[in-house]
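Exercise: predict the fold of this chain.
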Amino acid sequence: MSGGVSGEGGGGGGAPSPVRLVATDLDGTLVRRDGSVSARTVAALDACRRAGVDVVAVTGRPPRWLADLADVVGRATAICANGAIVYDIARRRVVEARVLAPDDVLAAVAAVRAAVPGTTAAVETLQGFRREPDYRPRHHAGDDRVAAPLPQLLADDPGVVKLLLRCEGVPSDRALALAEEALCGLAEPTHSGLGGLVEVSARGVSKAATLARLATQRGVDAAEVAAFGDMPNDLAMLAWAGHSYAVADGHPDVLAAASAVAPPCEEDGVAQVLERLVLARCR
């Protein structure tokens, strides 16, 4: 990869490393509450690419939820399902997937239900979304006709990339804390802000781990990455990146962990930072 621009942050003495890769969360970071992405943000991302800076979407979304954003995030690579999937946007092809084994899904659900009775489950799989009959999706999930008891949902080993556990009436931070204690290393729980929803990946899977592998493949060091996020599922990525930005309306833990704060998502915070990092240096 060629190109690069000087960045802010990065720690240590001396000049910061140039930014060669921008890794950004989508919902609540780049994508506004109404689902839109501003023209200003699109222009800033395009400017990065013209400057030789790679742009990678790193999201909890499944690949099918990228179709409407392909022109925004680019037609190269995205990291989906909190790091479980590397996705070729242009070819609409899963390049890499790290899945939860069916036995681990069943064990994880049983463990969390013991801690939070009444928890309901759904799974994002390589074959689509599936849910228990009592699980209530908060967003359109695609083909929602696949509703059945969990063992039946897993019988054909569909390739579970994310287990969704809805703990009704429990705040997300509390639900996550209970899930972390219950799972005890069996799998990787996190949350992205939706009320009472815990998102569980295979052990060792995170946005950070997959982004680190992708950056290494492209010859990019962590110090050359600018990462943006707003929720706990972004924490490890922000800790890894040399230049980390929490949007100002993000989760308190994310604001505390990032090396800098970008303006709120609704004010095109990512674009404002990228304009300083890229556009000002291209004039």
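Check your answer against the key: The CA atoms of residues 191 and 198 lie 5 Å apart.
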